[in-house]
Structure formats: C-alpha cells, structure tokens
Amino acid sequence: MGICASSRRVQQEEDSDENVVYVMDEQGGGGGADGDGHGRKVASLFSQKGKKGPNQDAVILCQGFGMEDGVFCGVFDGHGRCGQFISKLVRDYLPFMILSHRNALLLGGSDDDDDDPVFSDASPAASSTDGSGRSSPNALAPAQLLEEWREACANAFQAMDKELKLQANVDCNFSGTTAVCAIKQGKDLIIANLGDSRAVLATMSETGYLKAVQLTTDQKPNVPQEAERIKRSNGRVFALKDEPSVLRVWLPDEDCPGLAMARSLGDYRLKRHGVVSEPEVTHRRVASGDLFIILATDGVWDVLSNEEVVSIVCATPRKQHASKAVAEAAAQRWRTRYPASRVDDCSAVCLFLRDQQDWASSVAAAKAKGGRRETAARPLAASAS
C-alpha cells in the first residue's frame, strides 16, 4: 500500500499555523464564495499551543468529502516524543483513507486500492447511484449506512496504524495520537472516535432550551471494558501516587509508558497489551433542533464541561471564531485552576449544522429563555458499536 494524497488540495488559512488545515475537492466542493471571498464557512477550527513543548494537536476540515456538500472534520491529539509528527500524518491522510475504503465498499471491490482518487465527482458517493446501480449512501437505511461507514472507518484506522510503522523517521513505539472525526453526508452524521478526545452535540430541546449531548465515550483506562481488555493482554492499569485520579496503561514488566488512554494510533509497544486502534463509530440523523458539533482534545474537556463549551460557542458573536473562543477559555481555566501545572494544548473544531440566519434565530431563542440549559448526562448509546 502506501500513503497517497494530492497536496494541491491542502489549503492553509494565512492566519493559521501548520496545525490547522483546510481541504477542498478540485471543484471547490463545499459551496460558493461568501461576502468575504472565501469558501462557505461550515466550520470553525483553531489550535492553541500549550506550555508543554511543541503543539502536538492537529485539526482538519475537508469540504466536498464524498459528495458535493459532504464534510469531514477531525481533531488529533498527539502524545509522546514524536506525537506532533504523528498527529499531523494522521490528520493529512486518514480522511483520504476513510473515503477510499468507503468507495471500495460501495463498488464491492477490494479495500487495498488506496491509490484511487478520493475527491472525485465521479465517485459513487457523489452520485445518486454507483456503477452497479446501488442507491447513494443517503438512500440507505440508517443501520446499513452505519455498518458501511463503521467498516470503512475500521479498515482505514487499521491501515493508518500500519502506515505509521513504515515512517522511517518517526518512532511510534511510545508515541501516538487520538482521533475524533465527524463525517456529514447530507443529513447523516457519522462520528468515529479513538482515544480521549470528544465530540459533543448542541441541540435545542422541544421546550426551546439549549442541550449538550455527548456523542462519544472517552476511551480511558478507567472505563471497565477498556481496562478488562488491557488486563487480559497482560497490560497493567494503575495510577501514580501523585495523580491518583488518572489511571494509566503500563507494560507487563516495566513502569512505562503510562499511557492515559486505552485506544490510539501508534504506541506499538502497547498494541500487544490491549491498546487497540479500532474506533467506536456511531450514526445520527441531523434533527431540526441540532445546532453544531464540537470536536476537541482533552486539553479542553479536562477543564471545561460539555455545557460550558456549548455555551461559549453560542455566546461567540461570530461563529467563525467559536473554536478560538473555546480554546482560549480552556487555556484560561488551566491557568486559574492549575497555576502550578503547564497548560495543555487546546484544539477544537466546531461543525455548524445550520446556516447563519437559522443560527442567529436559534441563539436568540436560547438567550430569550434566560440562558437556561438542559443537559444529557450520558453519551448517545442507541447506535454505538
């Protein structure tokens, strides 16, 4: 196999650093130009370096993903000595791998042909039927749609994990990255999660109040099913005395590396001891009250609640600045809550599910309710893997 993608399709905004990347198909998929002369804004992206060294977070938005108005967005949190390189590699190539595997499934062919163009108007995902006359993804039943995307994501994550081993200049034995991704195909949302980054949905309840719904489970060693799998593979799970609330994964006979998550890409020394690269994939049909999805690294979620993040986004005057507002609020919370600790990298992607006019009216309605919020205490589980 081998990683392949056209760098001509990667576009960085002038005011962002290398951690933030925008991608559009060759036809400029994702809509026409707005008043500012840029592609239609469907998401807000931001990555803020912490005080622990190089920024190991990476974020991406792909427009025209699989269909004309399709979208892929992802957040990747690297860790270990080579974490900043691994997160960027995964960011740059995982979206193309997922779509390539998805197209292979639609064609009923092999998943091994990763050299096929993945941003093409001729791809089966971009048309009403594929070459065999099958319906487009949006015509599939939700269960079938989820199963096909789950398989495509699982295959792509596995292939990405193998590709990292082939990178001669990147040592992935004790380095890796998380990945949380949102794929929008028409009214269908597919969420793929690996590690302890998180996706949260903001929606308006039937009574008109703002509601935060966690869409993913933080895959940490404190989750019983994750810990059991690691222990069955002779990995060890325990917390250090100076941080008793943080369970970590350790090798059978060595007190290293102390990984604070149960799933990741990379971290090869722990792959034989229960740390896996299989994502959890869920599906949601966009409802009339759904406003946006926030994907963010644990630098945000370790100090801000789901409800606080949703409120920050809704309070931001210009939605294009929403992710920056979230990251800056998280960094400020780190400084005030843990003054003796180094601020973590804080990165977020906010994928908007309504246009600007609907957005303004929905936020105004929420404010008219006096800022009251409803919360969903548990992640969605009905369609979880």
UniProtKB/TrEMBL annotation:
PROSITE patterns: PPM_2. Belongs to the PP2C family. It comes from the Eukaryota. SUPFAM superfamilies: PP2C-like. Pfam families: PP2C. Residues 116-139, 365-385 are annotated as: Disordered. Residues 129-138 have a biased composition (Polar residues). It comes from Miscanthus lutarioriparius. This is protein-serine/threonine phosphatase.
